[in-house]
Amino acid sequence: MTVWSPTGSGNTHIDQVLTNISLGWGNNSFVGEALFPVVPVKKQSDKYYVFGREAWLAETSDYRAPGTEANEIPGFTVSTNSYYAQEHALQMAIPDEERENTDSAFSPDRDATELLTSKILLGRELAMKTLVTTAANYATGLTVTLGAGTFWDTYATSDPIGDMRKGCRAIHAKIFMEPNVAVIPYLVMSVLEDHPDIIERIKYSERAILTPEIIAAVFGIQRVIVPGVGYATGPMGTLGNALTVGYLWGDDVLLAWVPARAGLKVPAFGYEFAWNYGGQAMTTDRWREEQRKSDLIRTQRRYDLKLVGVEINPASGDVGKSITGYLIKDVLST
Fold first, then answer.
1. How far from the centroid of its chain's Cα atoms is residue 332's Cα?
2. Cβ proximity of 331 and 320 under 8 Å
3. How far apart are CA 32 and CA 209, in angstroms?
């Protein structure tokens, strides 16, 4: 695919080799698609359906006499919401001098692609974290903030198992399914590994070393994700700038129902609507700018993150708020 360069200095094309590098780049510390399955979309902006919960409404008029028609019932109550797959793009220049001074002429392209990809995905991860750790995005009864005496690092009085089971019950009361994914940030997981309540539950098991799988079994969750990605804030671009570095996910814990794959009429906590512009959710293109004696590498991803498992009953007072997730905020004292 070829389009004109944004600088007007030539033309640019999607580089399949560099795009494959970008698609293959992974970081196990990210939550990413494990919490927001990707929905490939053909248009940058469109609507999607939000279905009601009529499947749980019992019908008492289902008797049919011989030779008569069955009673006909209405289908799902349906509302719509919209997405807009905003483009997120970054680029780097590779001067001829840099390419000349490398052992492999392709190395600068690969290194640039990996750096650009990591920054775009870090931005997406930050957007996910901000969306799912905002208490106002959840329906009534689906968030709790811990305090003195209940912080999970206060081993003598805290009850992490009870807190998690309470969250499971709260989600089950809304969708009649227990959450199957928990996001437990690295700092929190390191505390749970020494919590006496957890140790008591597994001390007679064959595996004495705690793992996310064992923690998941203790909490009754199918999968535990442990994000440990770092995140820096502060002024950039000048030598000597002081950065504030910490864990992106902090100490909030999330429970959610996440389907194995995106689908119609499938309950889900959230989806990433990714516009497959050029055939891929994330692409990398390259062009030449002779006046700069440089090649330009640009990586882009066009997406919108949406909480899709939301309340649509106007009488609830929670229209548009998530009913497929449960947020436990501030589980640590520091």
1. 22
2. no
3. 27
Residues 6+ apart with CB under 8 A from 246: 230, 231, 232
Residue 71 counted as domain residue:
no
- Where residue 177 falls (left for φ over 0; alpha for ψ -120 to 50; beta otherwise) is beta
Amino acid of residue 61: S
* Digit-coded pLDDT (tens) for 118-130: 899 999 999 999 9
Q: How far apart are alpha carbons 157 and 152 in whole angstroms?
A: 8
Q: Which sign, positive or negative, has the C-alpha torsion 250, 255, 261, 264?
A: negative
- The reply to whether 15 falls in a domain is yes
DSSP secondary structure letter of residue 322: B
208 contacts 217 by C-beta, under 8 angstroms: no
Q: How far apart are alpha carbons 118 and 121 in whole angstroms?
A: 5
Tokens of 85: 């797959």
Q: Which helix (H) or strand (E) holds 275?
A: strand 270-275
Domain of residue 152, residue span: 2-53+79-329
Looking at residue 195, its pLDDT comes to 94
pTM: 0.84
Q: Is residue 73 part of a domain?
A: no
Averaged pLDDT for residues 134-144 = 98
